[in-house]
Specification:
The complex is a heterodimer of chains A (about 325) and B (about 650). Chain A is of the alpha/beta class and about 325 residues long. Chain A has helices at about 60-70, 90-95, 110-120, 130-135, 150-165, 180-200, 210-215, 235-240, 285-290, 305-315, and strands spanning about 25-30, 35-45, 50-55, 75-80, 85, 95-100, 170-175, 200-205, 220-225, 225-230, 240-245, 265-270, 275-280, 300. Helices cover about 30% and strands about 30% of the residues of chain A. In chain A, the strands form three sheets. Chain A has a six-stranded mixed sheet, sandwiched between helices. Chain A has a four-stranded antiparallel sheet with strand order 2-1-4-5, covered by helices on one side. Chain A is elongated and about 70 Å long. The interface of A and B includes residues 72, 92, 109 and 118 of A.
Chain lengths: ~325, ~650
């Protein structure tokens, strides 16, 4: 039996980065004692793009962000932000970055108004009208103690503060952790809306695939401190597929279709629920054909982006 | 801007607590100063500064450290700050400065408040004040640096504080370590901290400052160790394992401490000679050196033992310290060496004593016993006069009738003192000044007279109640109990026992004394006192030679003092010495005195080129006659040689 699998064309035109990178990491290494957290991390973020920084918990995302922020120093490698070496002017660079941390460690006794007054002392480009405007947009009470805020409100406040500094680069470190789905969606919409309005570059770290789908132009996948994918989302999604065959029909060593082994990479294979399952990543020229002729008994299984991510990460 | 924002944040966050804490601590100091004001010459107000430095300033440092540093790390808000565009050390440097500035402010206010009151009784020069302030600020730096460093150790800080407390206790109390030689302890010496005014203890101050610097730097290094990850890790709440480790640490510390103390438990000094008379319970030992002196030693041992036993029974003392007396034939009759570090140890020459001299010696012994009963506190409190007056009263008439001759001599001396300085009757307020001006025999006669008056007017029980209240009642051993003790002023406690206002007591007591001046025996003693007043002149000639001279003038007196120069059998003696760190007390050596017949109107004593510019000297003019057992201090002054 022959079947045809046609890939759907992406609804948005393919994104192409332009200009010099706003942020670049080259072969960055960092160890804590004997534990190597970053092992040659390399990536680049270009002006105006939303870069999704994807990785499992413990993959090294937060360490990478702490290094980018100049809070932690790397052991080796190069980091350039706005074309400058991070070590040359960390304070000046931070003044151009808006940062929303994973945990909102804001002073609980402060009100947003007091916090804004405190933070404005550090940022020469602090935009008070914008702060007021965003506070109103996000429906945040200006005179209530932050300690009484919910997690979502705190994250919105952190984003408000970050955007009020008129950042050229917005770094978001898993900002939606602990938020309910509605709040998460609201937050992501706000990020997308605001960054599009400002044209600011956004570096969005998360382990949640749907967040990346919602906002990112390009992604970098980090695993065990290394970049295992750096590029657009659709080519990644299109390059990976899963096929299965009933165990009774499976001939060991067989493949789902008529293509040479050398043109694909087996990401994962094994028995699952009475079927032999193969997850394959294709090379670009095969992908370009948009058509795969399947051998008899094999069927194509639908894959979510999360499945793609798991397959890539597991194989790494 | 960043620094201002950070400072503004800390001020806003802690302002209420800061105001409450500073007002509270200054209120405590003011309360203590108010208590002390009732007797400004008994205890220097700077002792209150020392008390504050030893008791509640470390507590304030702990609270400040907890609010400024610990809270920031425990709540994780430091992570918010470290992501801001600011240097990594600036927030911590500002915290260090804010904490130290706050402690320094409180300490400075304490010193200034104390100086204001000290000025009433003492010569508070800018140099002296500067020295006290410098020592105080250096100690504050040490406290804050230690707290700052430990605060960055998260939950380990509790163990570190326990360890530090154990170390301090070890150095302060372990007999094998002389704490007075170790930097911060030497700076806080109970005598030197307050009274040292001429010598700047550079080494101790530098040592303390260096220690502070080490702790501060350790704090900064710790905060950057592993880029702050160590501090962050330590800031997490304690686990069960941490609690167990802390318990093991505390138990081990206690075990080591008790082992060390057992191993180095110091044995009390014991006479090893064969020529010792020993009596037990209460323990009295008398060293007499030669067989010829044995009977006198037996007498003095029995007398002391009987007096001590009676005192113990009368006042209900659970235990009295061991008393040791050593015969030292080389000494003058009234020259006693008195130590209380190891029981009561007195060396004296009693071989030529008469009854009055014996009473003085017995007073010295009882003074030591009762002073030990108060933990040495009575020496520095406004009730020091109760200790002196009661011991003399106990020796003279506590168990038997007083010898009339003793009474006459004591009354005559007391009348003479009051004749020159009527304000000396205000014992609570003026005791220490009277002792300073008229020497201890003069002040003691007044204190004894007040007890004698009380016995006559209100009965023996009132005198004993007074002794119980001030000398037997356990002294406070911690800051809170001390505050509680001081809640009621000395004057109020006195009035409560007497059942009359202090002013009435003064009037009645003075009247009682005045009534006795017409007694024949008293008149006889008074008539032997030259009606003299002294003067001292310090000058430096144009060629730089310093001259100290002293002379005497006749003075008017309401008493029948002697104005007949020819009848004065005694000598006028100028005693002089450098003023040591302890400004309030003066014991002169024999070699620093000049004896001469008393000649009014003449320059009787002249001393050339003995002192140099910058020296501070105490000069006393005494009359030493055959009738009085102890000298009469005609005049005393302190000089700064220019």
């Amino acid at each position: 039996m022959m079947s045809h699998l046609a890939y759907e064309a992406s609804p948005v035109p393919a994104y192409r980065p332009t200009g010099s990178p706003v942020l670049s990491l080259e072969a960055v290494q960092k160890s804590f004692g004997s534990l190597r957290v970053l092992d040659g991390l390399t990536l680049a973020v270009y002006p105006g793009e939303v870069f999704g920084f994807l990785g499992r918990n413990g993959a090294g995302k937060s360490t990478a962000i702490r290094i980018i922020m100049g809070i932690t120093r790397c052991d080796a490698g190069q980091i350039r932000v706005f074309g400058k070496s991070l070590s040359s002017d960390v304070t000046g660079i931070r003044q151009r970055i808006g940062y929303v941390a994973q945990e909102q460690n804001m002073y609980p006794w402060m009100t947003p108004k007091v916090l804004a007054r405190f933070v404005s002392g550090f940022y020469p480009r602090w935009d008070e009208p914008r702060f007021q405007h965003l506070m109103a947009d996000f429906d945040l009470p200006a005179k209530r103690r932050i300690g009484t805020f919910s997690g979502g409100m705190k994250a919105k406040l952190a984003l408000t503060i970050a955007l009020s500094t008129r950042p050229e680069l917005l770094i978001l470190d898993e900002p939606t952790a602990g938020m309910d789905p509605v709040a998460r969606r609201e937050f992501l919409d706000l990020v997308r809306e605001q960054t599009m309005r400002d044209g600011a570059t956004t570096f969005f770290s998360t382990h949640l695939i749907d967040e990346i789908e919602a906002v990112a132009d390009r992604i970098g996948i980090v695993e065990a401190g290394r970049t295992i994918y750096d590029g657009e989302l659709d080519p990644l999604r299109n390059s990976i597929g899963t096929w299965s065959i009933a165990m009774a029909d499976y001939v060991p060593g067989s493949v789902p279709g008529e293509f040479a082994r050398r043109r694909l990479r087996v990401l994962r294979e094994g028995e699952r629920q009475g079927r032999w399952v193969m997850c394959l990543q294709f090379s670009e020229d095969l992908l370009a054909s948009h058509e795969i002729v399947l051998n008899e008994g094999w069927r194509h299984d639908v894959m979510s982006l999360e499945d793609v991510f798991i397959a890539v990460v597991a194989n790494a | 801007m960043a620094a201002i924002a950070l400072l503004g944040k800390d001020v806003r966050e802690h302002r209420l607590a800061a105001v409450v804490l500073s007002c509270g601590s200054l209120a405590v100091v003011l309360l203590l100063l108010a208590q002390n004001a009732s007797a400004p010459f008994s205890m220097s107000p700077f002792e209150i500064v020392r008390f504050a430095l030893l008791s509640f300033l470390p507590l304030i440092a702990l609270i400040v450290g907890n609010r400024l540093v610990v809270r920031e790390y425990l709540s994780g808000t430091h992570q918010f700050v470290e992501a801001l565009p600011v240097g990594s050390f600036l927030p911590l440097i500002l915290k260090y400065l804010v904490g130290y500035g706050y402690l320094a402010f409180i300490a400075t206010m304490m010193v200034l408040l104390a100086a204001r009151q000290a000025g009433v009784a003492d010569d508070v020069t800018p140099d002296y004040l500067g020295l006290i302030l410098a020592k105080t600020l250096v100690m504050c730096a040490l406290y804050w640096s230690v707290v700052f460093c430990f605060s960055l150790c998260g939950h380990l800080r509790i163990a570190l504080y326990l360890l530090a407390a154990a170390l301090v206790a070890l150095i302060a109390w372990y007999p094998g370590i002389d704490a007075e030689r170790v930097a911060p302890f030497a700076l806080m010496d109970d005598q030197l901290f307050v009274f040292e005014r001429d010598r700047v203890p550079w080494e101790d101050m530098a040592g303390t400052a260096l220690l502070a610097l080490v702790f501060a730097l350790a704090g900064f290094v710790l905060s950057r160790l592993g880029e702050g990850s160590v501090v962050e890790r330590l800031a997490r709440p304690m686990t069960r394992r941490d609690y167990v480790a802390l318990g093991v640490l505390a138990a081990s510390g206690m075990a080591i401490w008790s082992t060390l103390l057992d191993r180095d438990d110091r044995q009390a000094v014991e006479f090893s000679s064969d020529y010792v008379v020993r009596l037990g319970d209460p323990a009295v030992a008398v060293l007499y050196l030669e067989e010829d002196n044995e009977s006198s030693a037996q007498d003095i041992a029995r007398r002391t033992h009987a007096s001590l036993s009676a005192l113990q029974a009368t006042l209900g003392l659970a235990k009295v310290p061991d008393v040791k007396l050593a015969l030292t034939p080389g000494r003058e009759r009234h020259d006693f060496d008195y130590e209380t570090a190891d029981g009561v140890f007195v060396s004296a020459n009693w071989l030529e004593h008469d009854g009055y001299d014996d009473a003085i010696l017995d007073s010295v012994v009882m003074h030591g016993v009762l002073s030990a009963q108060t933990g040495g506190r009575a020496m520095f409190e406004p009730y020091h006069w109760v200790l002196d007056g009661f011991t003399r009263w106990w020796v003279e008439q506590g168990r038997a009738r007083i010898d009339p001759e003793h009474q006459a001599e004591l009354v005559a001396r007391a009348l003479w003192v009051l004749d020159i300085d009527p304000a000396a009757s205000r014992l609570v307020e003026r005791w220490q000044l009277t002792a300073d001006r008229f020497s201890y025999p003069g002040a003691e006669s007044l204190a004894w007279a007040s007890m004698a008056f009380l016995e006559q007017s209100q009965g023996r029980e009132t005198v004993l109640r007074l002794a119980n209240e001030f000398l037997v009642k356990p002294v406070a051993t911690n800051a809170l109990a001390t505050l509680e003790d001081r809640r009621t002023g000395i004057a109020s406690r006195f009035e409560w026992i007497l059942g009359m206002p202090l002013d009435s007591f003064h009037q009645q007591w003075q009247q009682w004394l005045t009534d006795q001046r017409e007694e024949a025996s008293v008149r006889r003693y008074l008539a032997r006192i030259p009606s003299l007043q002294g003067r001292v002149i310090s000058r430096t000639t144009t060629d730089g030679v310093h001259t100290l001279s002293a002379g005497y003038e006749l003075r008017d007196s309401a008493l029948n003092l002697s104005v007949d120069v020819a009848s004065w059998e005694g000598l006028c003696v100028m005693k002089h010495d450098y003023i040591g760190p302890f400004d309030t007390e003066f014991e002169v050596d024999d070699e620093y005195q000049d004896e001469a017949p008393c000649q009014p109107g003449e320059e009787v004593h002249v001393l050339n080129s003995f002192y140099s510019p910058g020296d501070r000297v105490l000069v006393a003019l005494d009359y030493e006659g055959p009738d009085f057992h102890q000298p009469l201090r005609l005049y005393s002054t302190r000089l700064s040689v220019q």
